[in-house]
Amino acid sequence: MYLTQGLHRSVQQTPRETMTICGERTRTFAEVADRVARLAGGLQGLGVGSGDRVGILALNSDRYHEYLLAVPWADAVLTPVNIRWSPAEVAYALEDSGTSVLFVDDLFAAALPAIRDRYDGLRTVVHLGDGPTPEGTLSYESLVADAAPVPDARRGGDQLAGIFYTGGTTGLPKGVMLSHANMVSQNLGFMASRAFLGPGTRFLHAAPMFHLADLAGWGGQVLLGGTHVMVPAFDPAAVAAAIEEHGVTDVLLVPTMIQMLVDHPAAKERDLGCLERVVYGASTIAEALLRRAMDTLPSTSFVQGYGMTELAAVATILGAEEHRAGGPLLRSAGRAAPHVELRIVDDGGREVPPGVVGEVTVAGPNVMLGYWNRPEETAAALRDGWMHTGDVGHVDEEGYLYIVDRLKDMIVSGGENVYSAEVENAVASHPSVAACAVVGVPDDAWGERVHAVVVCKPGATLTLDELRRHVRSLIASYKTPQGLEIVEALPISAAGKVLKRELRDRHRAEGEA
Amino acid sequence: MYLTQGLHRSVQQTPRETMTICGERTRTFAEVADRVARLAGGLQGLGVGSGDRVGILALNSDRYHEYLLAVPWADAVLTPVNIRWSPAEVAYALEDSGTSVLFVDDLFAAALPAIRDRYDGLRTVVHLGDGPTPEGTLSYESLVADAAPVPDARRGGDQLAGIFYTGGTTGLPKGVMLSHANMVSQNLGFMASRAFLGPGTRFLHAAPMFHLADLAGWGGQVLLGGTHVMVPAFDPAAVAAAIEEHGVTDVLLVPTMIQMLVDHPAAKERDLGCLERVVYGASTIAEALLRRAMDTLPSTSFVQGYGMTELAAVATILGAEEHRAGGPLLRSAGRAAPHVELRIVDDGGREVPPGVVGEVTVAGPNVMLGYWNRPEETAAALRDGWMHTGDVGHVDEEGYLYIVDRLKDMIVSGGENVYSAEVENAVASHPSVAACAVVGVPDDAWGERVHAVVVCKPGATLTLDELRRHVRSLIASYKTPQGLEIVEALPISAAGKVLKRELRDRHRAEGEA
User: Fold this and answer.
1) CA angle B291, B285, B85 (to 5 degrees)
2) Is B189 touching A (CB cutoff 8 A)?
3) CA angle (A320, B192, A244) in 5-degree steps
4) What CATH number corresponds to the domain at position B343?
């Protein structure tokens, strides 16, 4: 199993059909394969060797797609970086993974000095934007044009395909190691479910391509040999325009994006009748939003995929039929996909019967190899081949999974995981803060929003603006608290732990009142 | 990846739906899982340990299906034996694989003494028939009833799933080692193609279940959680009856079986409108037969799968649309399935362009681990991960594969591979035979039939009847020559090799005349 296999297959079967559409640029399978073989040759010419990590920090584009294929073709390892991260976080991920070659686009070229200030290991930076090539970087197109094509290394099987960073419970991001077999088997299983994509489809990359959610669909589409359409980033008008102009059939969004799309005038002005499927993840969908989305997009099916980076990504699927039925099933994350086995277990690792709450665990060929250089966290997450997700839930008598809580102290805001510990580290470093706790509180637009509860040092004061400015200099803006509550003391358990549930429940009660 | 994963998933999602229908017997997923866990417990109680080989010699049944799941559940290895083989061949396969526990049904219990005469390593025989338990065997149902269920060993990944015997070019059958990952990844890829089976389908096992062709569909159906219907063996009237009575949607047949089914009165007397797909393999289909089949089964799609045991089994697929289009495409074996990459290579292993004839090679996660205890034949077949099929063909500009010849000296008759060397060994052992060659000649009903060309010893004579009697005592009846030609001398090349093409061409010319 190797990520590039589908490209070879498509070159054999449909060489002159369209593989990528990005703005005005369209490329066939044969053209992409030629460019990928040259880019891989260029990388090898730069000294990239077997297993070396090659990073990318860029908005979506056809070149991002070529990077994803050229790096394994060159026998190297993907390290796509979260585009919403601060320079400090990006530098951390690059250093942790030992990435020495980085691809950046026009937007992120500007962040290079700040990244280089914190990490001096970047040997080569390749600029894949359309603007002029910044000083100190190589031109992507020159690299492709000047290099001779090399044969595919056919890196595959249990070999490392990529290191994908997620927030860490301990406050630092950790690298999820996925093998080619992990990614390709989830692609096969996701496609065998028939829930998403299919023969002759056009997949729009509107969600960021660094994220495993979009990459899971990307891999499925490479496997099936369909067309990829890219927009740089999610924007409701641009997404609606791309769907209409390019006959997009499938798109992955998070519920927040669905809401922004269906509530935008473009959704009514454009003819979106070609859109067959929207798959969403990261949270369940509110029935009211789903109804509105179905009214706006009457010919579109909605599908939920639940999973995580560690599962490359899809583990359970809530299908189109369940969405049409509506009702309580909409609060479910769906049922085990064809490639996985799902079990709810108690603290001792024993399976519990339907209806009983426990930790969600998943087995299958998609379960990650482990966390990069983190044997202890790997051992905690992977036990006898079962991924312990940290999500708490139950299954019903028909195998439908319901997530009710998280063991990990994590907030999901607009489809992104925010680990409270990471935000707390940033908040606590403000000179006015004596103690703090960060929780997620319900939010109509984002699912949850980041909320800080702070005890100030004696005599000190703090405003939300001041706190946000401070935190944003350290971590990504989507992790920055959107609310601040100053308290005399944090509620503490007998064991000395902050009672976060109490902090959250206060807001839930307010929200419902 | 493990063969039992789909069973766990179905027990979680559809425990009370029907998993197997065999004659009057119907069992739910929960019932099958319970029986499988008990049967696995019974096997372990008999001393079957990790990696031990457990054989089966039986017609199709629901118990065959349970065997296929219980053996890996018990951490053991499947060795299903070809039901058309002679006792000598069965004994060879059991001895070669070191199988000490064998399942037999009523029909094959009668062959036990002849097998035991040749192989004394059978420690335990389990009788899974409906008749009385023969002396010296254990009752399958007692084994299931008396054993306590054991947890699934979840044998999987690269661990050996089974040893599947195919004819050998050197004259002896060889064991193809398939891992769980080999089998499950082909199941996922075959299902991702959407060419066969699908949600809510009922798959009829009419072709023998020991064969990878039927097992490829079996595995896909276990993965998707559909229903299995079994008939003991192919019989056109029984197949038509089962399709109508049980609402069968999918069946795997070889072209010979399709012909027998559509030309049988039952095909018109029965309502076969539920049959959505017929997948066939082992050879292409004659357009005249396909048209007749489409007329008789107007609501059925026809699909071809090309592959081999070494590929577990499907490598290329000719889909329903191509069949509806008809014409020259019907002579193609189809295009690479989602899980494989297909290349035509020259003698030096270099890929040749479309239209150029070479050896068919296949890469993918379904490529076997190797031949059991045959490192030399393994090294010859597997080079850099590519399976060298021994078939000679070319691909066109759209990736359609056309098989034009075989490197291996092999005859395909009624869907079974017959290696000439094996038949020649048997023919040559007749006291009247001085020299012989065995070739396949065209046959309307069987695709090819086995034809012997013999030079008699001075003064000796030989009739077809005499030869057939002799050969049948040694090898399976389907390998027995159906024609005999006595010649003065065999045509020999300068290098001393028999010119088989010359022998075959003579018959082709006659057939066309």
Assistant:
1) 135
2) yes
3) 55
4) 2.30.38.10
Residue A358 and residue A346 in contact, taking contact as beta carbons nearer than 8 Å: yes
Distance from CA of B15 to the nearest CA of A (A): 8
> ipTM score here?
0.86
Could you report the per-residue pLDDT of B92-145, keeping only the tens digit for each? 999 999 999 999 999 999 999 999 999 999 999 999 999 999 999 999 999 999
d(CA B198, CA B192): 9
| pLDDT confidence of residue A288 | 84
Write down the pLDDT at residue B79.
Answer: 98
Q: Nearest Cα to A444, choosing from A474, A471, A413?
A: A413
Does the pTM of the predicted model rise above 0.80?
Answer: yes
Same domain, B353 and B253: no
Same domain, B104 and B193: yes
Q: Could you read off the pLDDT of A62-76 as tens digits, one per residue? A: 999 999 999 999 999
Distance to chain A for B394, nearest Cα, Å: 12
3-state helix, strand, coil in chain A (%, to 5): 35, 25, 35
Domain presence at residue B323: no
Residues 202 through 231 of chain B touching chain A, CB cutoff 8 Å:
223-224
Which domain covers residue A437, as residue numbers? 410-512
B131 touches chain A (CB under 8 A): no
Q: For residue A278, which of A189, A207, A339, A215 has the smallest C-alpha distance?
A: A207
Domain boundary among A204, A236, A268: A236
pLDDT at B512: 44
Q: Vertex B91, ends B90 and B93: CA angle to 5°?
A: 65
Q: Which of residues A206, A236, A266 is at a domain's end?
A: A236
* Count of domains for chain A: 2
Counting as low any pLDDT under 50, the low residues of chain A are 511-513
* DSSP result, B351-407: B--TT--EEEEEESTTS-SEETT-HHHHHHHEETTEEEEEEEEEE-TT--EEEEEES
Return all residues near A9 (Cβ < 8 A) that are at least 6 apart: A225, B336, B338, B340, B341, B342, B399
Distances (CA, A) of A58 to A63, A109, A121: 10, 9, 19
